[in-house]
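Entry 14. Ran structure prediction on the chain below.
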Amino acid sequence: FSPDREPHPAVAEVKFLQQPVVFEPMEPYLNSTHLRITVSGTKERCHASVRFNMTSRYSFRDLSHLTWSWSITGNRAESPIRRGTFELSSAEQEQEVTIELDKVLSRLIQLEKSRPIGGNSYFLNLRGRLKAGESWADAGHLLVSQQ
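Output, structure tokens:
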């Protein structure tokens, strides 16, 4: 921090490295930067999901004090395209997380058809926020953030 208490850019990196939960994709990446989304079914009834391994870094606390959400954003949109919530078991240190993307996939297909411009990128953001206030932060404080 600077003398006038302005945070340096490295503070965001420190926060990310010290966050209490880590998400890693279960399926291998398509390449070094693209996440693999599992799609099954027919054209009329498509099912899409992405799966993660979640690891809690807590030694003496479970995850029941956090609420979890996801959002899909694009490089050409200011607001999220779709958002939702998901649940984690509070007792397990490691667990599998599956985020259903059925409605998201149909929305992305609509966007691609309506604006057929190449180079679109979409980002899945995972967030964990405090359910209730703690002595060190208010309710809703962002504790886990991963893209």
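The beta strands are 21-25, 38-41, 46-56, 66-74, 82-86, 94-100, 122-130, 142-146. Will compare against last week's run tomorrow.
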